[in-house]
């Protein structure tokens, strides 16, 4: 088409270019898949400890036992395990920032002030 710019350089073999592109993406995707599967593997020790990270003396990082409790009851239990935590009560359908803060625990509650999912550090 006369109005479109001419492409001055094209690969000599388009099949080779596609193959290299696919291979590069394949390596990248497999790396992501491997890292993701390792990160998502359930940690048996952590599950048995009720949300504590693996290791001896590790501090608790989630509170699944407070699901269904009121926000005040949940805050009390969280403060028992992590006295320095800044506990934020948030409506379950609210937008929140995605930053990770080790001093913050968000408690998501429904319209009846009941905890809807396990609060966790972050």
TrEMBL record:
Entry keywords, A to Z: Protease inhibitor, Serine protease inhibitor
Example GO BP: response to wounding
A GO molecular-function annotation: serine-type endopeptidase inhibitor activity
Keyword ATP-binding tagged: no
One Pfam family, short name: potato_inhibit
InterPro entries assigned to the protein according to its UniProt record, in alphabetical order: Prot_inh_pot1, Prot_inh_pot1_sf
Protein family per UniProt: Belongs to the protease inhibitor I13 (potato type I serine protease inhibitor) family.
Stated name of the protein: Subtilisin inhibitor 1
Organism phylogeny: Eukaryota, Viridiplantae, Streptophyta, Embryophyta, Tracheophyta
């Amino acid at each position: 088409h006369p109005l479109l710019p001419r492409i001055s350089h094209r690969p000599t073999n388009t099949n080779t270019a596609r193959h290299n592109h696919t291979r590069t993406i394949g390596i990248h995707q497999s790396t992501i898949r491997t890292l993701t599967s390792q990160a998502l593997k359930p940690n048996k020790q952590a599950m048995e400890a009720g949300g504590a990270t693996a290791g001896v003396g590790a501090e608790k990082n989630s509170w699944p036992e407070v699901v269904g409790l009121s926000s005040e009851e949940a805050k009390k239990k969280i403060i028992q395990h992590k006295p320095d935590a800044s506990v934020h009560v948030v409506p379950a359908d609210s937008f929140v920032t995605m930053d990770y803060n080790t001093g913050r625990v968000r408690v998501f509650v429904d319209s009846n002030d009941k905890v809807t999912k396990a609060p966790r550090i972050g």
